[in-house]
């Protein structure tokens, strides 16, 4: 089924033309007009040709309902943020998703002026995806691969995020290179967290425990998480925020990873809070800085 046809009833301008698109979400009441294959609490959803627009509408409504639920919880615990609307967030994961969980919890309690509306994953069976399904969040597999034959294409992914009105894309342990289609669709709106002080110990293949082992082996005295905007390459986008963590003399990689992860959770929530409150300023030289909430004349 042509995805352009699927979306044409819900947007004013053509988005894409592609075929065989699938979306993954929970269906509370599947009807006789849809076909689906269920496995381990998630559904591979295919729109029937006779009811394609109704099928996609159902998916979008499910996503929006999730947003409204989380937004309603948070709205009781925060002010209007000076008239700034709540932002819609897409999170990408490939593993356990501890940063994803931290972000989601911050949205629920109102620390972040936004809501996660969809999870995108390269591993539909990972812990992060399980957490999302448990919380009623839609899960979209991307990209298509030998292990994920039902993954969608980059163009289809952009169309899904556009339909959900996503403002920011947050990478939280996502181990795939972001396609140029997504980068072009979301300029200065995709951020990633890396467990070292970039540009040190970054690049393709440097992730997770590999980074911490390399830091210790190098003799570096300091490390820590970096949050940066995403470009077409691994870990080379503009740095937005960093947090220094000392490397102790007797550290194992596991010891260091645990301390860095605590700072990752704190720093990522702080940065996403600033993003959603529109406190990111771009200097003339192209460097992003964060305006202080308490003092608008101070930056970090």
Automatic annotation (TrEMBL):
Name the catalysed reactions: N(1)-(5-phospho-beta-D-ribosyl)glycinamide + (6R)-10-formyltetrahydrofolate = N(2)-formyl-N(1)-(5-phospho-beta-D-ribosyl)glycinamide + (6S)-5,6,7,8-tetrahydrofolate + H(+)
Biological or metabolic pathway of the protein: Purine metabolism; IMP biosynthesis via de novo pathway; N(2)-formyl-N(1)-(5-phospho-D-ribosyl)glycinamide from N(1)-(5-phospho-D-ribosyl)glycinamide (10-formyl THF route): step 1/1
Name the Gene3D superfamilies on file: Formyl transferase, N-terminal domain (3.40.50.170)
Q: Which top-level enzyme class is recorded in the Swiss-Prot or TrEMBL entry?
A: transferase
Record's keyword annotation contains Cell cycle: no
Which GO-annotated molecular functions does the record name? phosphoribosylglycinamide formyltransferase activity
Q: What CDD domains does the annotation carry?
A: FMT_core_GART (cd08645)
Name-wise, this protein is: Phosphoribosylglycinamide formyltransferase, chloroplastic
